[in-house]
Structures are given as structure tokens and as C-alpha cells.
Design goal:
- This protein is α+β, with helices and mostly antiparallel strands.
- Helix content is 33%, strand content 29%.
- The protein is built from seven helices and seven strands.
- The chain has a seven-stranded mixed beta sheet, with helices on both faces.
- Helix 1 packs across helix 3.
- The protein is globular, with a radius of gyration of 16 Å.
- It starts with a strand and ends with a strand.
Length: 185
């Protein structure tokens, strides 16, 4: 299926806010575990649209998926991201050659990503990641994210379809996560 992607605009914020509330735990509930996702407020979505990136996938004018990326200045207010940034500064020596130079300055936070369940397996995930990566590459060399250990579906999608590599494994607030990154080139 050909996928239409574009950057979100302020006119998309109300629809995105509804999708955030409606599908917050959609991906997570399918794992059978007790996972919780992160939801962005309308004000945060406006900031993301204005100063960061929200890439949309559409079919017949309807949003069927989106992925968010932002500078660390937006995300570091949350404790888990501060933990992640602290770990990021220690990765260098143990990382593969392509990730040795990964820093806060040359990377951004990637995610979350959501794809309507009716469109999964049709290339939407890959199209969103590719379009976002293309948009970000002028600003950052790396996209960094974390995925809960129990979220096997997301882990598989990110390693197989987004070429993300595991850089570290960490625990935070009683849960375990993979710290992952991908080149934007």
C-alpha cells in the first residue's frame, strides 16, 4: 500500500489529541502485560508541532499513524528521559563504531509511534520512520528511544523495520527497558 506521509500542522492537533487519549495503550494492551504509555497534552502537541516533529501517515485524508520526535530539551522534564540521557553519556566505549559518537547534542528522542490496527503490516510503520528520519537528518545524526522489555511487538518492529540497535538495557521504576538508537542517514 502506498503511504502518504507529511509533517503535522496546528490544524492536526485536535485530532492528534483525541488519538492520544483513545489509543494511548492500544499497542501496549496487545502484549498481555500491564504496561502504560505516555500521553501528550494538547499544549504539548502544539509545542511538538511548532518546535519539533510529528510525522503523520494518512489514508483518504484520515490519520492512520503518527510518530513523534523531539529535542531533548522537550523530553528531559520527565524523570525517565533524564535517566536515559545519563545512560547515553556512558555508552561510547561499549557501542559499535557507528554509535560511539552518540551524544545528547547529535541525537533526538524518537517516539512514541502509533499505527491504526487496521493498517498494521502494510508498510505504514516503515514509511513513518523513513519520512521522520529524512526530516530529522539535517538536525541530528541519531534517533534514540526506549522500549519496555515486555513490549515484544514494538521491539521486533523497531529492530527489523526501523534498523534500531540495542545500546543498553536499564531498569527504571521497577520496569526493564531497551535503550535503542538508529542513524538518520
Amino acid at each position: 500500500m502506498p503511504v502518504n506521509t507529511r509533517l503535522a500542522t496546528l490544524t492536526d492537533v485536535d485530532v492528534l489529541a483525541v488519538l492520544e487519549k483513545q489509543y494511548l495503550n492500544d499497542e501496549l494492551s496487545s502484549t498481555g502485560g500491564n504496561l502504560e504509555g505516555q500521553s501528550f497534552s494538547r499544549a504539548e502537541l502544539i509545542e511538538l508541532v511548532n518546535q519539533h516533529w510529528i510525522m503523520l501517515a494518512e489514508d483518504k485524508g484520515q490519520i492512520i499513524g503518527y510518530v513523534i520526535a523531539g529535542r531533548w530539551s522537550f523530553f528531559e522534564a520527565w524523570p525517565i528521559y533524564r535517566n536515559l540521557l545519563n545512560r547515553l553519556s556512558k555508552i561510547g566505549a561499549g557501542a559499535s563504531d557507528e554509535f560511539r559518537s552518540l551524544t545528547k547534542q547529535n541525537s533526538c528522542q524518537y517516539g512514541p509511534i502509533w499505527v491504526n490496527s487496521q493498517y498494521r503490516g502494510q508498510g505504514v510503520f516503515e514509511a513513518l520512520v523513513k519520512a521522520l528520519s529524512h526530516e530529522i537528518r539535517a538536525h541530528f545524526r541519531y534517533m534514540v528511544t526506549f522500549i519496555a522489555e515486555e513490549n515484544e511487538r514494538s521491539f521486533a518492529a523497531h529492530t527489523r523495520k526501523a534498523s534500531m540497535q540495542v545500546l543498553d538495557y536499564f531498569s527504571f521504576s521497577g520496569r526493564d527497558y531497551y535503550l535503542m538508537a538508529a542513524l538518520t542517514e
